[in-house]
Amino acid sequence: MPNLTPEITLSARNLTRRFGGRQVIHQVSLQLRRGEVLGLLGHNGAGKSTTLQMLTGCLLPDDAEKNECSIDICGVDLLHHPIQAKAHIGYLPETPPLYRELSVNDYLTFAARLRGMKPAAAAGALMQTRQRCGLEEVGKKIIGTLSKGYQQRVGIAQAIIHSPAVIVLDEPTVGLDPAQIRGIRNLIRELGDAHSVILSTHLLSEVESVCDRVEIMQHGKLIYGDTSAHMQQHGSVSGFIVGLGNPPPPSVLEGIPGISDVEQISATQFRILHAPDNNPKGALLTMAEQQGWQLEQLTPLQATLEDVFVKITDTSAEGETP
To answer: What is the pLDDT of residues 204-220, one digit of tens each?
Structure first.
């Protein structure tokens, strides 16, 4: 009997997929832990949606019959026992699978019954899911009349109504306005407390806002994986911004031991770089006090996720053969 709440809720090994003569996914392997939100990050066309379709059993990996790849959901082999494995999955494709002519209540009840719930259990799940997804006020409304943000909430609701261990969301905030995006991201963070969530996105702000861990995909390959915090540190630079009310010429700052580069940003601000193991901050503070430079700002440099993403993907692209 498989463990229904294992530490590793999803494990995939050596996923490969070809369309015609073109290989679009190259031996992708990843894991999803209980209570984790994993962001699958990459440019449009990187292979994210194809990978999620394989992880949810909507698309068969190549060479599956040869046992050269595997997908386990809560200890159940998805490729050999798809019905049992899919019972632990909730999936929101990039285009939500909505019946626009149904009311929200009727559609979600239908989704619950498709998942094998008895009528009483489906009714209880409907009430709980509407509350979690902020749909209490629109239960009787026809889905086609709702805003795109609410339709996206309904799509997430159908994915979680059976309380799956693994929730897979493909570009869940695409096309939404800023207020709708904020609401969906808050919902995803809440889902991560009780479920395992994997979401694909090309939005770096999405990763920073909701993800515990990141896998970067490029040209059908996973090229980088780490926690969101470590990803930001990956591109960090050693340096700081210094503001001086009475600054000296940049050449004077460059002469301070340990400083490797000085870039003047404005009349009073400078971008200072130094070696990681030789921080000149102390020497700079001493000289600023002695020379009357009037120190007004000293802010450590921190790379943005955009900087890190560009650095990682550019480095990976440089290593590829044409």
So the answer is: 888 888 999 999 999 99
